[in-house]
Amino acid sequence: MNLIVAVDKCWAIGNKGDLLIRIPNDHKFFREETTGKVVVLGRKTLETFPQGMPLKNRTNIILSSNPDYKVKDAIVVHSTEELMEELKKYNSRDIYIIGGDSVYRQMLPYCNVAHVTKIDHKYEADAYFPNLDEMEEWKVTADSDEQTYFDIPYQFLKYERVKKGE
């Protein structure tokens, strides 16, 4: 299973229910990675999308603890257990966890690949992703050249979970 996230230099991912910054190349990478795949997200993340609608050309699975929550054109599950049962229907390589912070934390133990856009800037933030650089089971296995958006440097990193002894 994969996850995809954009973080700042302190592993922040959001502030007041919104992204820290919108980088067109990051959005393009996100679209290329997830189109035609399964995306897993929380209700609050869905509500930040245009008109609060699921992403087009993807299977959207929304995790919400509200048993009455329903979303047109999406599958809604109400627990990690129910989510894991639903995900058995799909190839794990086609599943992308896309946020927010509580969904990332719940699902990180099940993921083997993390696509991280690392932005070399510190933002005011109230939502964070776990720092993979501090976890010995995660290693950077690919990185892009540094790019810039206006004056802000960033790069695309691929982390993979390594097995003990590697």
Tell me, rounded to a whole number, the average pLDDT.
96
User: Per the principal axes of the C-alpha atoms, what is the gross shape?
Assistant: globular
Approximate strand percentage: 25-35%
Structural domain tally:
1
N-to-C terminal Cα separation, in Å? 20 Å
Q: Roughly how much helix do the residues carry, as a percent range? A: 10-25%
CATH topology call? Dihydrofolate Reductase, subunit A
Structural class: alpha/beta
Report low-confidence residues grouped into runs of 5 or more. none
Work out the number of β strands: 12
CATH class: Alpha Beta
Instruction: State the order of secondary-structure elements, H for helix, E for strand.
Output: EEEHEHEEHEHEEEEE
The main β sheet shows up as: 9 strands, mixed
Radius of gyration: 16 Å
Number of helices: 4
- CATH homologous superfamily grouping: Dihydrofolate Reductase, subunit A
CATH architectural label: 3-Layer(aba) Sandwich
